[in-house]
Amino acid sequence: MDATTPPRSYKRTSTVVQSADGTPIYADSVGDASKPSIIFVHGFGLSGIAFDGIFEEGSEGRNQWEDDVYLVRYDLRGHGRSGKPEDAASWDSKRLAEDFDAVVKAFGLARPFLATWSLGGLTVTDVLAHFPPRYLSGVILLAGYPSAGGVLKIATPSALALIPPLLDPTNTIATAQSFIASFTAPESPQLSYTMQQAMLANIVTQPKGCTVHILTRTQDEAGFWAAGKEGLPMLVITGTVDPLVDQEGTRKFFEGTEDKQWKDIQFVSLEGVGHMPFWERPAKVRDTMLGFVARYRTVQ
């Protein structure tokens, strides 16, 4: 599509799906469902609004993502517009995998790409613990933590220092404000006031029972490493000045041992970028992700 081509009118859909245990999961989409699909998963305490820059990109109805892919996002359980169960059983890894699968089925997707940001990356391990590698076409980590076990190896001291105050109900607002302020690098485009306030509202309205489970739950990484060894493609995008994710720690995590390596993995480092690369360098991230999808897309 060139600059003279009129923008297409793509269908936008929002729904609330029921996960296997009955938890309601909010999801929405935009684009042509016949194209390769990318499911976006947000980070801790937030919701799908974090990806508004992608889902509402451009002016006069033009969204360059939609020319190539079908965009889907959902609010993780315990977040945003989805259900917020506080019992321990509702936070078993299988439940999180079932949430993802409920979204896949609701939108009629086949072998979607899974793109996760920050702590939303734990969804990758949830999914691969309960579904075979060919369930996905590829995985994209956006400044992400791929597993609960990987957090201690990848998180910076600043990120780890946020955990105790986030679990403390007496200073949620101040901690949330500091957390949100760390998303973008000083030289990057800053989050709009509206986005900051929406994110703050997401965090402070999350029940503490959910927060505790999110930050302390465990996962079985066997399926994750098996998928990497089998050749499931992965794209890792990080920023050089991310205060929450250690670039070198991320690389070392994926080097692993002989039994813990990712066979087909690409690292992209963005100079001067912080923890929110898709906001800070939207065109670069879009082109990189769409190139990855084009390379590994399957007939859907």
Automatic annotation (TrEMBL):
The keyword Amino-acid biosynthesis does not apply. It comes from the Eukaryota. It comes from Cristinia sonorae. This is Alpha/Beta hydrolase protein. GO terms for molecular function: hydrolase activity. It holds the Pfam family Abhydrolase_6. InterPro entries: AB_hydrolase_1, AB_hydrolase_fold, Carboxylesterase_BioH. The keyword Hydrolase applies. Keywords: Hydrolase. Residues 38-287 form the AB hydrolase-1 domain.
